[in-house]
Specification:
11 strands, 107 residues, Rieske Iron-sulfur Protein, Rieske_2Fe-2S, 4-stranded antiparallel sheet, iron, 1 helix, binds FE2/S2 (inorganic) cluster, iron-sulfur, mainly beta, globular
């Protein structure tokens, strides 16, 4: 059963919190997650790479909605978590969206 969390006081606060295309590490409840906003879309995913546990918040995102691990450059789809290049388990993702109340995320 997932729990709903809201980050930021409102939509504008959420946008300020998450500059476009920047990976932020946030603590949501007892879970650390990476958050990325790309225009109106928000992605949330586990902060440690499923390959060898590098810190994905030190990675980069590309224009195809993928996060690139800083260590061996494996790529993961931020929406589905699918590994797009490399061989390792998929990334765990969490439902997240931008709303008038802020960023809503389900952990
Ligand atoms: S630790 Fe992320 S690709 Fe190897």
């Amino acid at each position: 059963m997932s729990k709903k969390y809201t980050l930021g006081a409102n939509r504008e606060g959420a946008i300020n919190l998450l500059p476009d295309g920047i990976i932020k590490l946030v603590q949501v409840g007892s879970t650390k997650v990476c958050l990325v906003r790309m225009a109106e879309a928000v992605y949330a995913f586990q902060h440690l790479c499923p390959h060898q546990a590098a810190s994905l918040y030190e990675g980069k995102v590309n224009g195809m909605g993928q996060v690139i691990c800083p260590l061996h450059h494996y790529r993961f789809d931020m929406k589905t978590g699918d590994v797009m290049s490399g061989t390792c388990p998929d990334l765990k993702t969490f439902p997240a969206k931008l709303t008038e109340e802020g960023i809503v995320i389900y952990i």
